[in-house]
Amino acid sequence: MSETNPTDDTTETDATTLVDWKNPPSLGDLKADYDSAKVAHDVHTEEVDNWLRVLNGEQTINAKRGRSKLVPRLARRQAEWRYAALSEPFLSTDDLFNTAPQTFEDKESAVQNGMVVNYQLNCRMDKVKFIDEYVRTAVDEGTVIVRTGWEFEEGERKIYEDVMETQPVMDPNTGQMAVDPQTGQPAMQEVKVGTKETMQTVILKNHPVLTVCDYNNVIVDPTCDGNIEKASFAIYSFETSLSELKKDGRYQNLDDINFESASVLSEPDHEVNTDDTSFTFKDKARKKVIAREYWGYWDIDDTGEVKPIVATWVGSTFIRLEENPYPDKKIPFVLVQYLPRRKNIYGEPDASLIEDNQKIVGAVTRGIIDIIGRSANGQQGIRKDALDVTNARKFERGEDYKFNANVDPRQAFHMEVYPEIPRSALEVLNMQNNDAEALTGVKAFTQGISGQALGATATGIRSALDATSKRELGILRRLSNGLTQIGRKIISMNAEFLDDEEIIRVTNEEFMAINRNDLGGKYDIKLNISTAEADEQKASELAFMLQTMGNTMPPEMSYMILADIAKLRKMPDLAKRIEEYEPQPDPMAQQRAQLENALLEAQVMNESAKAKENEVDVHLKKAKAATEQAKARSMHSSSDLSDLDFVEKESGVSHAREIDSDDRKHAQQMENKEFDRLSDMDKKEHDRMSALDKTAFDALTKPS
Predict the structure, then answer these.
(1) Among 444, 221, 439, residue whose Cα is nearest residue 339
(2) Based on C-alpha coordinates, what's the Rg of the chain?
(3) What CA–CA distance (Å, rounded) separates 31 from 314?
(4) Are residues 306 and 3 in contact, defined by beta-carbon separation less than 8 angstroms?
(5) Which residues contact 263 (CB under 8 A, 6 or more apart)?
C-alpha cells in the first residue's frame, strides 16, 4: 500500500509491499530510465510522424487564394502496391511455420510444435488481421514492434451429471432377487435415478497473444546498438481500466490508484488508439487510465548480477512487480526493420526515400492544375460590331442569324479552350515517377522501371524484374525473420503455459494430444514463405518432371509429385485426396494377373520338374557309364584269361597243373581212406572197452 494517503497521486508506492527482494527497484528508478530514453524516442517519433505525413499527403502548402493546394500521394501509391506483394506470401499458406528438428530424435516433437503454433495462429488469432497490420506498419512506419504475450482466462460452466444408485438385480423369471453364483450374495447393479446440476471450472482462453504496438507507446533502451537482444529495458504504455486489471488477476494495489484524477488525456506521451479522444467513461470500473509496463533487468539480490524483471505502474502506484514470467527470460518485444539503418534499432520506410520526389511532383502538378483551372474553358466571345441587336438575340437562342458584312466571322467569334500543358512539365513528372520507382523498386503502372532501362530486349526486361524481385525478397527476409523470432517465443511459452494434455485439432477428423514435455526443445524454425511466381515455377518444374519420367517411375512417386503440384496451385483438398488415393484394381486385369501368376507358377514347376528329371538322367547316365566301364573291364579280363589259357596249354603248364591236381586228389583219397580205417579201429576198441566196463559193472552190482 502507499506510504501516505492513497488519493495523493504524487506519492510513490513502496516496492517492498509487492516483493521480498533484497534490492527492489523504486518507481523513481524506473521512471528515470523512461525519461532518459524518451529523448532519443522523441527523435524517432518525429521522423515517423513526418514519414506518415508524406504517406498520407498531409504536407502544408502555402498557396495563394484561388491556387491549387493538391498534394499527390506518390508514397501512398508505392505503398499500396507493396502491401499485397509482402502480405500474400504469408497468407497464401495455412502452415506459416515449418519446424525442423536439430536431431532425428526430435522429429516428432518438432512436428508437434509446428502443429501447435500453426493451429494457434490460424484458430486462436486473426491471422489475416495480424499479418496485414504487421506488413502495413512496416511499410508505413519503417519499423514494426510486436509484443508477445499469453492470455489465460478461466470460467465456470454448468454441466449435468447422472445420479447413480445401487439396486438389486431382479430375476425376470421368478420375480425375485438374483443371486451372484460366485459369492452367493444378492446381485447388485448401478441404476441411473436422475441428474444433478453442477458448476465446473473450465479454461476459456489459454493461448499466445501478438500485438502490433504503436511506435509512440514503446520506448527501447537507446544504448542497445541496434539489437533488441542487447537492450536493458523496454517500456510499453497501454490503456486499461479497473475492471480489466481485476479480471487479469496479476495486479495488486488497485485500490491505491486515483481513478478520479487519472485520465487518458493527462498522458500526452501516450498515443490513444482511437480517433475520438473526447469520449471518456464516467464510472470507475470502465474509466480508461494509462499503465506503463517496464521489461528489463535489475540487481534484485544486490549481488552485482542483474535478473529479468517486469514492473507495471499507473500514475505513481506500483501494481505489478515480479521476475520475468516468460520462459526465455527476454524482453517480449520483436522489432523488424523495413529498410535497416546501421547501428539503429529503427528502420526507414519508402516514404523517406521519395519525399523529395513527392514534393517536386506536387509542385509540378499544382502548376498544371493552376494553368487549367484559371482558363475560361467553354466561354465564347463575340466582336461587338459583328451582330446587331436582333441577330444577337437569335444567336443566343441558337437560331440562324446574320452577321454584318464588314466583319470576318472567323475573327468575330472566339472560343476559349484549355491551354496546352508544357511538355517540360510532363517530362519532369515522368522523371520524378521513374526516380521514385527506381528508389523503391516498385512498378506502380507508371512510366518507371522497364526493360528499355537496361536494353530493349527480353534479357533486359528479365534483368529489371530480377532486380525488383531481389529488392522485394530482401524485405521479405527481414519480415520473415521477425516472424521466426515470434515463433520461437511462442514455442517457449507453449512449453511452459500449455496444459499437459492440450487437445489440438489437426484436421476435421483427427485429434492429437500434445504433451508439454515434448514442446520445450530448441528447434530450427523455418518459415514457409511462398509467392505466386515461386509456386508457379515449382509447379511447372514438377509437371515437366512428371511428363518426362511419368512412364518409367512407379505410380506412388507420380502421386507424390501430383500432390505437391496441387499444394503449390493452392488446392489442398485435391492434394489430400491424391495422397490418400488408392487405385481400385480392374476385375479383368486382376483375373488376368492371377492367370499370369498361375502360368508363371506352372512354368516354374515345369522347369523344376525338368531340372529334377535332368538330375535323374545324370545319375542314370553315370550308372550306365559305370556299367559300360564294368563290361569293358569284364571283356578285358576274359581276353586276358583266354590269352593266359592259350599260353599255358602251349607251354604244358595246364597239363602239369592237371597232373598235379590228380596227384593231390589221389593223396587226398589215400588220406581219407587211412582216416576211415583209423576211425573204424578206434570205434571197435571203444566198443570192446565199453563191453568190458559193462561186464565189470554188472559183476559188481550183482547181489551175492
Answers:
(1) 439
(2) 56
(3) 12
(4) no
(5) 280, 287, 288, 289
Measured between alpha carbons, how far is 581 from 562 in angstroms, rounded to an integer? 11
**Mean pLDDT in order along the chain per 10 residues (704 residues):** 41 77 92 93 94 88 79 89 88 80 73 84 91 95 95 85 84 76 80 85 88 94 90 93 89 85 73 66 84 94 93 91 92 94 92 91 89 84 88 89 86 86 89 85 58 50 61 88 91 84 59 64 64 74 84 81 82 80 78 86 87 81 82 80 77 78 83 82 81 76 64
Residue among 233, 229, 232, 207 at smallest CA distance from 481: 229
Secondary structure class of 207 (helix, strand, coil):
strand
Give the span between the Cα atoms of 661 and 665, in whole angstroms.
Answer: 6
Q: Is 290 exposed, middle or buried (0-12, 13-18, 19+ CB in 10 A)?
A: buried
Q: How far apart are CA 487 and CA 499, in angstroms?
A: 19
Residue 157: exposure state from Cβ atoms within 10 A (0-12, 13-18, ≥19): exposed
The answer to whether the CB of 472 falls within 8 A of the CB of 462 is: no
Q: DSSP labels for 59-121?
A: ------TTS------HHHHHHHHHHHHHHHHHHS-S--EEEE-SSGGGHHHHHHHHHHHHHII
For 151, 175, 207, 498, the CA distances from 201, given in Å and listed in that order, are 17, 45, 17, 17
Please give the backbone phi and psi of residue 571, each rounded to the nearest 5 degrees, phi first: -125, 70
Owner of C-alpha cell 514455442: 491
Phi, psi of 361 (to 5 degrees): -60, -40
Note the pLDDT of residue 513: 64
